[in-house]
Specification:
10 strands, alpha/beta, 8 helices, binds adenine, 6-stranded mixed β-sheet, two-stranded antiparallel ribbon
């Protein structure tokens, strides 16, 4: 997958060089490029913002630097690429842009639909993602409208709160998406039982020692009975979801009789199902 990020603070994205995402970049599984928006300005001060028409507080990002940066990315060039080096001729499994369709342009914004695991899964199938990190009060709407002609435009929020810019939100989404790409996580099985994978939160986990400060690991996990352990874990997932995120229960499919009994007991306040 190819990922381009445009920002006036490309250093923010340097964290993506670390850990599993950095390794995936090094190995050519991910082709990650960070572009400095100021490289697409031509005045002495590299101006990227101006005051809003109609008045109001703050500044608005100018359309032209954004259009030039996005056109540059559409052209496949590397001017302005910093921080996370472009992989050097490595096989990234690139497809022809025509065959792959329009790149997806994600514009992080608290005014977008809220990003979640389903969207991460959908985006992990894409060939090319572009993240446009706005700052100040946002980006001139005309370049957003223009970009919809060239990209599959996806405004996206990471939650109902306001950040200072799109960089952190982009990093959140890039990490959530990249880890779903085959080859990024060493053990793909670790993706199958985590929170949100099937609409449930994950079960509690423990490691050695079996007894720590008078707190024991639940007996069943020491039993070696894999069927019973799987059932116990699913029960904990159901309970935890009902307790912490009851809003997720409405979306659940494929609950069996036992699942419903666990949820029913939990809802009626009878927690005897817990070990
Ligand atoms: N930019 C500012 N706040 C944001 C949010 N909550 N999500 C995505 N981008 C943002």
């Amino acid at each position: 997958m190819k990922i381009d990020v445009v920002s006036i603070f490309p250093e923010y994205l340097a964290g993506l060089q670390l850990s599993l995402i950095g390794k995936a970049v090094d190995q050519g599984v991910l082709d990650l490029n960070v572009h400095d928006l100021r490289d697409f300005t031509f005045d002495r001060h590299n101006t990227v913002d101006d005051s809003p028409y109609g008045g109001g507080a703050g500044m608005v990002m100018k359309a032209e630097p954004w259009a030039l940066a996005l056109e540059h990315i559409l052209g496949g060039g590397s001017l302005g690429t910093t921080s996370v080096e472009q992989t050097d001729g490595a096989d990234t499994g690139d497809k022809e842009p025509a065959a792959a369709g329009k790149p997806i342009l994600i514009v992080p914004s608290p005014a977008g639909p809220v990003f979640n695991q389903r969207i991460a899964e959908e985006l992990s199938d894409a060939d090319h993602l572009v993240f446009a990190c706005g700052r100040y009060e946002g980006i001139d709407q005309r370049v957003i409208d223009w970009s919809a002609e060239h990209f599959d435009l996806r405004p996206m929020s990471i939650g109902d709160y306001v950040l200072n810019g799109g960089e952190v939100a982009s990093m959140v989404m890039i990490e959530a998406v990249s880890r779903l790409i085959p080859g990024v996580i060493g053990n793909p099985e670790s993706l199958t039982e985590e929170s949100h994978e099937d609409g449930l939160l994950e079960y509690p986990i423990y490691t050695k020692p079996a007894s720590w400060r008078d707190r024991d690991v639940p007996e069943i996990l020491l039993s070696g009975n894999h069927g019973a352990i799987a059932r116990w874990r699913r029960d904990r997932r159901l309970e935890r979801t009902a307790e912490v995120r009851p809003d997720l229960l409405a979306e659940l499919n494929g609950l069996d009789k036992h699942d419903r009994a666990v949820l029913g007991r939990f809802e009626s306040g009878d927690d005897s199902v817990k070990e």
